[in-house]
Amino acid sequence: MFDSLPVDPEVLKHWTWADFEPYYQDLVQRNITSGQITNFLSDWTRISEAVEETYSRLHVAMTKNTADKEAEELFHTFLDNVFPPSEEAEQKLKSKLLDLGTEPPRFEIPLMRMRTDAEIFREENLPLQVREHKLSTEYDKIIGAQTVQWEGKEVTIVQLRPIFQKTDRSMRENAWRLAMDRQLTDRGAIGDLWQQFMEIRLQQAANAGFSDYRSFRWKQYHRFDYTPHDCLRFHEAIERAVVPAAMRVAERRKRLLGMESLRPWDMDVDPLGRPPLAPFREVSELKVRVASMFYNLDETLGRYFDTMVREDLLDLDNRKNKAPGGYCTEFAVAKRPFIFMNAVGIHDDVQTLLHESGHGFHVFERSHLPFHQQHSVGMEFSEVASMGMELLASPYLSEEKGGFYSLADAARALVEHLEHGIMFWPYMAAVDAFQHWVYVHPEESSLPSNCDAQWKMLSERFMPWVDWTGLEQEHITGWQRKLHIHVVPFYYVEYGIAQLGAVQVWRNSLKDEAAAVKAYRDSLALGGTVALPSLFEAAGARFAFDSDMLGAAVSLMEQKLEKLRQ
Asked: Residue limits of the Peptidase M3A/M3B catalytic domain (predicted)?
């Protein structure tokens, strides 16, 4: 029966639940013994991957053009018609395997995840999850439609980013204020969405028997190796070990710029007054040079990237009505990644493509694992794959090594990246602490005005170097502009944890690059078959995020910065 399952996405995207259902029914009704588990898991993998790839491709089509009504309709039809019954069927299969009481090889962690899923699954949450997905698309549409007039042209907010790097301060300020004014016009609409998000999420937690959404979300994310309290301690450790280093970066910037204070539009300009790095003019050049960097780092990684280019698995340029941000998703049947981003010709675009390619390499490396259930990896390590690649590839940024820049500009690019890395931890702490407050105090946080006040307090606690005088509304609405807070709640601390892992991988590469890259690839190949600490260990890192670990990472970054600045 499963031999008849289509693999053509153009066929699958029009399938309804009536088409998928017989395959699930066969598996649910199948009598299996321990000797038949391999067959059962193989067939389960095929139908799960068909559903997952259909979702991914429909989502990709919609984010490519948020104004495409047909793409939106197909995606919403899938959410309404296929998503709820497929989730219910998946849960029945998980229970069936758990009831068998047999552990297939390399299935300890997948079974832990299944037990947790069984514990929190509630059929009444399925329509709520559909509504939540639809609200997320509404958020994307709002952000994707934000354009302004700049020098006689309609441009997206993202397309203003290169202006923030210009040495003309008045131009930077004008562009920044123009962007903020446009974003503030959607303040009410985003606030309305926020209240709907909160209602839906709190109801899901209550339906599953949890007193708060944070506890429910912890289970959803399969966070077996750390607690909410550990995250609060992480915030405190960042305040002690990283904020002083970030202040040193900011003070140096202020001194070099000759300014009394740093305004929001002063944070991206080169402090030495050099023109912005301009790594490429066309996306085609970005692809060619990044491919060359990967080949010089590791031939297999270069081949993986070439496959993505050849098979049209990259959508990199920014344009009107394209969803915001960047992501890498997986086409599970094809065993291929797909990378989406909004490039506008600045160095951040190079870093974003290196980052998302790290996720893509993860897809390639774990594709040898036979069962779909072995592929799921905690984001705390998935982000090591991406953030680690940003650092591993950094020696190849110069033209003479396949990249974009002169030796001086390559050093400058790494300085910017390391400085941004130090500044990132405090921002991450603010975003994560904000979400802990939101879901521990849901009655208070359901009001956007209270969220404004909380964001202001956290911003001042973790990022005191920015002068927001006279910019009260722009300051307090920073939380509205952070996509993760709205569409993937509690997904952000992973970046902070992963950056610690990535810095350790990079540290190893400074001593022996080939060995570090091998450990990196070997760890990606494990997929989700071992626990989080073991994944870090395989990559040559230690899973920890205390003051000592942060202090060691920041010390290495500052030492490297001192050498690069000479």
From this structure: 165-550
Establish if 81 belongs to a structural domain.
yes
DSSP strands (E only) in 399-554:
none
HSE value, Cβ hemisphere, 13 Å, CA-based, for 121: 19
* Angle value at C-alpha 531, between 331 and 539, nearest 5 degrees: 80
What tokens were used for 410? 């390559």
What domain range is 66 assigned to?
Answer: 2-104
Query: 62 in a domain, yes or no?
Result: yes
Give the separation between CA 554 and CA 245, rounded to whole angstroms: 7
34 confidence band (pLDDT: 50, 70, 90): confident
536 token code pair = 């870090």
Helix (H, G, I), strand (E, B) or coil at 30: coil
Secondary structure (3-state) at 282: coil
Residue range 223-240, pLDDT digits in tens: 999 999 999 999 999 999
Q: Does a structural domain hold residue 305? A: no
SS3 of 478-492: the string is HHHHCHHHHHCCCCC
Angstrom distance (rounded) from CA 15 to CA 9: 10
Contacts of 409 (CB under 8 A, 6+ apart): 277, 398
- Tell me whether residue 56 is in a domain: yes
Q: pLDDT band at residue 429, thresholds of 50, 70 and 90?
A: very high
Domain count, the chain: 1
pLDDT at 324 > cutoff 90 = no
